[in-house]
Structure formats: C-alpha cells, structure tokens
Design goal:
Layout lengths: L5 H14 L5 H8 L6 E5 L5 E4 H14 L4 H7 L6 H17 L1 H4 L5 E8 L2 E8 L4 H26 L3 H27 L21 E2 L2 E2 L8 H22 L2 H16 L3 H22 L6 H27 L1 H12 L5 H19 L15 H26 L7 H24 L7 H22 L1 H4 L1
Helix pairs in contact: 1-2, 1-3, 2-3, 2-8, 3-7, 4-7, 5-7, 5-15, 7-17, 8-10, 9-10, 9-11, 9-16, 11-16, 12-13, 14-15, 15-16, 16-17
Length: about 475
C-alpha cells in the first residue's frame, strides 16, 4: 500500500463521518466528490490500482449508517420491492455474476475493446473476450455506487430536511469551483504542478492543455471531460433550484457552476447542457399548461426565450466573423465527430452491439466492454436483463413524488432529479462503461431519501420524529 498526501484528507473525512451526527456526514461526503483525481492510497502490487478518497468516503458513509441502531432496518426498507433500491439491488447481484462468470462463459466468443498498457502509455485495442482485472475494478466501482445510494437514501429518509441537501450541494460547488480556478491560475503562472498534491491517483492526466486559445479547466479531476460531467450535475441542480426558490445564494451557485462548465471546454458537456436546457424549457411550458400563470412567470418565460434567441444570434455572428471563436467552436464541437477520435468512438459502439449479439443478449460482463454511449455499454455488459433493471431503477427515481411535500422540499427533490437528468444526458453521449459515477448515485440517493422521508413524515409523523 502506498500512502499519498491525500491519504490525510481521506482519514480526516472518515473520522468526521463517524464523529459527527449521521445527517451531517452528508456534507462531508459531498465535499469529497470534487476530488476525482485524489487517491486515499495506491496499490502497487495490484497493477498500481488507486482507491480514491471518494471510494473510501462511500464505504465510510455506508458504514456510518449501517452501524447505527436502526441502520440495518432503514437500509432494508429502502431495498424492498416497489422501491427504486430494489431494482438496484437486483442489478448489483447481476453485476457480480456478470463480472465473475460472463467473461469466462463467453471467452473467445466475441472481441471487445480493451485497454492495452505499454511503455508508450495506454491505448484501446480490439482483443478476444477474456476475464481481466477490469472486471473486478468495475465491479468494485459499481458496488461503491450502490453503497452510496443506499447510505444517502437511508440518511435522508430519517432526516428529510432540504437544508441538509442544499448545504451539502453548496459545499460541493464551492470546493469544485475553487479547485477549477486554482487549476487555471496554476497554468497562468506557469506552475502546472501546483495541484499535484491532490492529483495522487494513478491516472493519465491531461492538464494545462489549451483549446482554441482557452485553457481547459480540469480542477480536481484528471481531465476536462470528467470535470465537465461533474460541473453539469451541479449546474442542473442549481438552475432548477433557483427557478423554484430564487435568492442570491442559488443564483451565485448557478452562475459559478455555469462558468466552470463552459471553461471545461468539454464537447460532450456542451451538447448535454444544450439538450438539458431545451428539456427544462419544454417541461416548464408543459407544466404551465392548463393553469393560471402569474405575470412574473410569463415575463420570465418570454425573457428567457428572447435571451436564448439573442444568444444564438450572437454566437452565430461570432462564429462567422471572429476567427478565434470559429477555431474554438470547430475544435470543440463541429469537427469532433469527424475526427479520428470521434470515428474510433463510434466503432466502440458498433462493437458493443456486436458483443450483445454474440453473447445471445446476455452480455459480456461488467468491465469487459468499452463503448462510447451509456446505453450501449449497459447492453454489452449487462445484457438485456441487466439494462432493463438499470432503466427500472432510473425510472423509479424519476417517478418518486415531490408534490405535497412543502415548497422547499419539493423544489429540492426536483433540483436533484434535474441534476441526475443532466448527467445522464452526458453519459448517453460518451460514457465508456455502465458506471454513472458516485456523485450521480449520491444525487439519486438523496432524491429517494428526501421524497420517501417527506411522505412518511406527513403520514406517520410520530414514527419519524
């Protein structure tokens, strides 16, 4: 085991989760989520694998709730049939089977894209299906996702306070934005290694790069796309929360998350946020139909439409007239699909579909397949059955009630759902594996806990007091 500087961060966070009241461990855990490149420790004897501070945090917060007197019963309550957690539990069992058995069952029956490591770095190559360490690594990460969901759902079910969620999201946003601007500042002063103290995991780092004259912001993550993915979730939350609550703090958080999202220069995040904004506008218009709309709401809607149209006109004019803008947008968006990287990623999806066919719709196993689309990755890894369970879980989260829970709680639940939707849209564009990330499952867990806890509080206040 290799101890690194961020081992201290992990130790402090774990200690805080066990010392503080359980509900306060939520903000401690979310404070760790922007540290995507920080390792709690490395394992040189296991191919240099890294256990991240988020990984340790997920295990710690699960243990913190499981060791409370009523923890096991609350965990079991969130996993019973009819709840989203039930589908996730079934998927977890299938994930174990798929990672340990499917690669051996279908060994040599199909070819998969895998990572080949050599002296010149790592590259993606087409190889015959076989069991690899990637099966265990991806299984470990997926089980951490499950533990994160279960822990936060259990905590918020017992303490269904929107203040816990909003406070934790503020902490995550402040840490994330601060790391992002620290990264940009380190490049500006020529000290790109300034944040190496938190970049301790054994990853391939893409830091200090420029695109169209703009430095790509990576913050506490190894590269811009993962930084943009996290920023997208924060922006999705704060946009929906500000629309329901208003106020200076939500506005500042929304603007800050939007700025770092733009500075990530992640093409997938740009496309995803465009789709997300269109869906948000469509949902708002549909919800307004059939009921009276206040003058203020109508003016805001009209202003948003005019502002969006004006922004598009300005962007189009800048693209046509300003060479730096043209070069930037071409490199980030318009030339992306035709690039060698874009063509290669499309071939991953084609092969992932072939993996599904070659395995008789069962899947090649979690950790065996690399795609460039979340749905294709799920089908090729889990098969039709596992993908169905995954979609049932996501649908269950989306259907959880929020009306009648009070304005603050209702808005917070909707904001969490919006954050998850934004991240799912991005994953549908580029995700190489079925893993949506610990932060996504944290959002889902908070939705489940806050919604279910709010319902129980209204129906059985004495039992939840």
């Amino acid at each position: 085991m290799e101890i690194v500087p961020t081992s201290i961060l992990a130790l402090i966070a774990v200690g805080a989760m066990f010392i503080l009241p359980t509900y306060r461990s939520v903000w401690v855990f979310l404070a760790l989520t922007p540290f995507g490149a920080a390792a709690a420790f490395n394992l040189p004897a296991v191919g240099g694998a890294s256990i991240g501070v988020m990984d340790v945090g997920a295990m710690a917060i699960f243990a913190a709730i499981a060791l409370t007197p009523d923890g096991p019963s609350r965990i079991a309550g969130g996993l019973r049939p009819g709840q989203p957690g039930f589908y996730l539990l079934c998927l977890a069992f299938l994930a174990v089977i798929s990672a340990l058995i499917f690669p051996r069952l279908f060994m040599g029956h199909t070819e998969v894209f895998g990572i080949s490591r050599g002296d010149n770095g790592s590259r993606i190559v087409l190889i015959p299906l076989r069991a690899t360490s990637g099966n265990l690594t991806q299984l470990f990460r997926f089980l951490l996702d499950v533990m994160t969901f279960v822990a936060l759902a259990s905590i918020l079910r017992k303490w269904p306070s929107p203040r816990i969620v909003v406070g934790a999201m503020i902490v995550a946003t402040v840490v994330h934005v601060s790391l992002g601007f620290a990264d940009i500042a380190s490049v500006a002063i020529g000290q790109t290694g300034l944040l190496d103290v938190i970049r301790t995991a054994n990853y391939d780092y893409l830091v200090g790069l420029k695109l169209g004259g703009l430095t790509r912001m990576v913050g506490g993550f190894p590269e811009a796309s993962s930084f943009g993915y996290f920023s997208l979730g924060l922006f999705g939350f704060w946009l929906r929360y500000w629309l329901g609550v208003r106020g200076l703090v939500p506005l500042v958080m929304m603007v800050a998350s939007a700025i770092v999202l733009v500075l990530s220069t992640s093409s997938a995040s740009y496309v995803a946020v465009s789709v997300f904004l269109m869906l948000t506008a469509a949902f708002a218009m549909i919800s307004a139909l059939g009921k009276d709309v206040s003058h203020r709401t109508a003016m805001l809607a009209v202003g948003a439409l005019i502002g969006a149209f004006t922004a598009l006109l300005v962007l189009f004019a800048a693209y046509q007239l300003a060479d730096p803008v043209t070069a930037f947008l071409d490199s980030v968006l318009f030339d992306k699909a035709a690039s060698s990287s874009g063509v290669e990623r499309m071939s991953w999806n084609t092969q992932a579909w072939q993996n599904l066919v070659d395995t008789n719709l069962i899947g090649a196993g979690l950790g065996s397949v690399r795609a460039s689309n979340w749905l294709f990755a799920c089908l090729a890894s889990f098969g039709v059955l596992g993908t169905g369970l995954y979609l049932a879980f996501l649908a269950g989260i989306a259907r959880l009630p929020f009306r009648g829970l009070g304005p603050a709680r209702s808005t917070t639940v909707q904001a969490l759902k919006s954050a998850g939707l934004a991240m799912l849209i991005s994953a549908m564009l580029t995700s190489a594996t079925p893993d949506l990330g610990i932060f996504f499952f944290a959002l889902a867990g908070m939705v489940a806990g806050l919604s279910r806890g709010g319902v129980l509080e209204l129906t059985t206040p004495r039992l939840e007091s």
